[in-house]
Amino acid sequence: MARQRGDGGTLRGVLRVYLGAAAGVGKTYALLCEGHRRAERGADVVVAFAETHGRPHTAALLDGLEVIPRRKLSYRDAEFEEMDLDAVLARRPQIALVDELAHTNVPGSRNEKRWQDVAELLDAGIDVISAVNVQHLESVTDVVMQITGVAQRETVPDAVVRAADQVELVDMTAEALRRRMAHGNIYPPEKIDAALTNYFRAGNLTALRELALLWLADKVDEGLQRYRAEHGITGTWEARERVVVALTGGPEGDTLIRRAARIAARSSGGDLLAVHVTKSDGLTGANPASLAGQRQLVESLGGSYHQVVGDNISEALLTFARAENATQLVLGASRRSWLLAMLTGPGIGSRTIRGSGPIDVHIVTHPHAGSRWQLLPRYRGGITRRRQVAGFVLAAALPPLLTIALADDRSGINLTSDMLVFLVAVIAVAMTGGFLPAVLEAIAASLLLNYYFTPPIHAWTIAEANNALALGVFVAVGLVTSWVVDTSARLSKRAARATAESELLVTTAGSILRGQGALDALLERAREAFGMRSAGLLERRDPVGGGRGPAAEWAVIASVGDQPAAKPDDADVDVPVTDTLSLVLTGRPLPAGDRRVLGAFAAYAAVAFEQQRLAAEAEAARPIAAADRMRTALLTAVSHDLRSPLASAKAAVTSLRSPDMHWDADDTAELLATADESIDKLIRLVANLLDMSRLQAGALSLFPRPSGLDEIVARALDDLGPAGRDITVDIGETVPAVRADPAILERVIVNLVENALRYSPAGKSPLLAASALGDRVELRVVDRGPGLPEEDRERMFVPFQRLGDTDNTTGVGLGLALSRGLTEAMDGTLTAEDTPGGGLTMTVNLPAAPGD
């Protein structure tokens, strides 16, 4: 039977696919063997369609399995057999075996393709085990055509197989498959020679086998990436080669891309990723046309192009490579000349190698290496641009101003004091503008001290060695101080950023853990944190595409901000969350460091989305939980009520059948009456339980029709036996017929009268009266019992409630609950109110029959 969801719907079935490289590898054989294994474990398995192609070993596996007869269709004066989809759906097995997933159905079938039939079976909650050859996958049909020269007319979208819960490769070497063919285990003898010399050539089979292995490896990699994302694993796992090539937009780019592509191609299924790092000020110095051409080259080689922002290029490259689980990084040899390299120290390649860790770094030579002569690279420290400008202004203004001021009082201040004053100026410039302005200040101050304050004055020579040492120390102290201040500012900036990132992540993680991480609020926090225009979570729902390219169809799960991206290609930043989820932002490209933090937000978004989904499932499961509580209460409540009449009936029948006892007529009649009464109790109890179950499931069948109350009441009182004769009935001749199911209404009246009799004192019979109220009819059951407080009146209609009872001898408490449910099912109402003078009145309000 189909499995049920928490909301009462049907769970989607599980799809398992056997993938083979060619016909004859054993897919159908494996499919039928799995069917036998499942059947031996107690599963309900049917063969919906299996094509044995006359192979005796495969056909023998059909024995012992239930085979659904095929549907016969006529097309162009010929008769064909197809899977009978309607018969399989009507049979509703647990597992259906469906061979040849890519098969095209005969015109006139419900669906064009068999995989569409399989989709209907899965939607009906039926698990499906199927089989397909790699040449029938839509993405490789052109490659198969090039290899074999045979066009494939029957194909299945890759996404259908990728969406399978399990894909198992049925593998066989080309030599073994050709031997199987030669032995007549695949095709009949007259086709063997042609097959071996054409499609089943060893080269063809080897290429098809490689295609199958690569396709399956790609699906396995999707599962691995999903696992890493779900478990927050950021370290490099070298399960598959992922090669990142760094592009600058320079002329060496094409060489690097092709070299990286060759490295990626050395391992089957390797990935190629190209990345370009831009400066935070947007002044990259790269030729946009060159970058566009290089991007086109990367994509033509099957790679993907990415762009990140970072002032420290080597750090940005490594951050990106680690985030993408890259195993190798390809860089071009530096275009700096040997003189420039000697003067400026280690380049990007050296710094990248030192920080690469487990990532292999390739430095690729090219014709443009060593051709750049720029002497000083752009310096970037921890000081803002505004402070740097202010520092240069001070470096230009302070030396002449201090020189003029100190020269006027040269007689009162010695050289040592002059140096200290200039040193204070150097420190002030360093604290304001950083290293470069302070270096200029120190050089200018040393020259001015030498010319204006060091004997001989107004000469560039120094007479005393002590003064020369003092000037040297002055310059050194100025440079060291400038470097310390600049490094401190840079570290302070990093510390402030790290603190802000940690606070942001801790706050967000805390909200998620506390269940406060609504998806929209999380996206809004991400948008504000990174200063973006919009943020959104997208889900790929394309049943055919299976990729992240332009053909994929994306649905917006949640979005905030202005003009959110509808697909990853439209976004400035795209962070994959899982194989089907993607976090996208619009506004500007983000630095590599920000992408690392954004990766954490992507993981949080996945958790928030999962929480949202689980909350919906929990809400849908509430009725199931209520039903479980109902079943628990049922088992508790009916234990005595089932056991007592069963024991009484069993004792009476056992006594009558006992050969050692002889009963007279009166005793026999009494025992039979006891058994009959006990069985009647059981029948009423089971009927009530079944009706209550049908009511809760919405499966109770009603047949309303015009019915006279006098007849229904008479039958109900007859059902009550002798107790029914004590009821006072007042139904006037003017009371119209009601529109109700007579049998159901009779049950309601019996339950209400039994309840009234239970609580009525001796000598005060209950009253059963009816009257017309417009287009409705009211039937009242009045007793003179103790009544019931108003606050308890609704509670008595809850199943398994026996208000005021102290034991289990008065029923399971279903009568009133069932009566209300049955009445409401007939478009009526059942209410309770006080009886004037004491007691309780139960009022049934039903629609009058039309025309009365």
Query: Which blocks of ≥5 consecutive residues have pLDDT under 50?
Result: 338-345, 370-380, 803-812
Average per-residue pLDDT, rounded, comes to 77
Helix content: 40-55%
Q: Count the DSSP helices.
A: 24
State which percent range the strand residues make up. Answer: 15-25%
Distance between the termini: 48 Å
Return the structural class: alpha/beta
Largest sheet: 6 strands, parallel
Radius of gyration: 44 Å
The tally of strands reads: 24
Gross morphology is: flat
> In terms of quaternary structure, what is this?
single chain
Q: Record the strand order, biggest sheet.
A: 3-2-6-7-1-8
Provide an overview of this structure.
It is built from 24 helices and 24 strands. With 852 residues, the protein is α/β, with parallel strands linked by helices. The strands form 6 sheets. The chain has a 6-stranded parallel sheet, sandwiched between helices. The protein has a 5-stranded parallel sheet with strand order 11-10-9-12-13, with helices on both faces. A 5-stranded mixed sheet has the order 19-21-22-24-23. Helix 7 (174-182) packs across helix 9 (202-230), helix 16 packs parallel to helix 18 and helix 19 packs antiparallel against helix 20 (592-657). The radius of gyration is 44 Å and the shape is flat. The two termini are 48 Å apart.
